């Protein structure tokens, strides 16, 4: 009987190197797929929303409020996608004395609007509910001036 038995001798060092190179090759292929495969989808979706359709026209917008012969302005500063600041301007000392809740109410509203970047779902304090509602309407009016016209 002439069976030719072949014995293959593998060195453990060669087996380990081969396994390491296979794992590295698979990781490289997966990494390249993740980096370049999903980037096209993410770039096209993000760039079309952020660049093509800005929420506001950057600038400073004001709305006047008149209360018992006292006139002052609510000033809103925006960039293309964010509300940056909300403040009261031309507020006289007599108006501040007559309406002491104006500034705290505006600070409360502004903090909520900065966090959400929206005038929706704003909570009012019970002690200055009507003052807050008046200021919020003025802020909405100023923001409506900032919306791009198509």
Order of helices and strands: HHEEEHHH
State the assembly state of the protein chains: single chain
Number of helices: 5
Share in β-strands: 15-25%
Descriptive overview:
By secondary structure, the protein is an alpha+beta fold. It has 2 domains: 12-52; 59-146, Sufe protein. Chain: A (Alpha-Beta Complex), CATH 3.90.1010. It has 5 helices and 3 strands, in the order ααβββααα. It has helices spanning 12-37, 39-52, 93-98, 102-116, 129-146, and strands spanning 59-67, 70-78, 83-89. Strands 1-2-3 form a 3-stranded antiparallel sheet, with helices on one face. Strand 1 (59-67) and strand 2 (70-78) form a beta hairpin. Helix 4 packs across helix 5. The longest helix is centred in the first third of the chain and has 26 residues, at 12-37. The chain starts with 11 loop residues before the first helix and ends with a helix.
Summarize the structure.
By secondary structure, this protein is an alpha+beta fold.
Descriptive tags:
alpha+beta; 150 residues; Sufe protein. Chain: A; 2 domains
Secondary structure topology:
Blueprint: H1 12-37, H2 39-52, E1 59-67, E2 70-78, E3 83-89, H3 93-98, H4 102-116, H5 129-146
Antiparallel strand pairs: 1-2, 2-3
Helix pairs in contact: 4-5
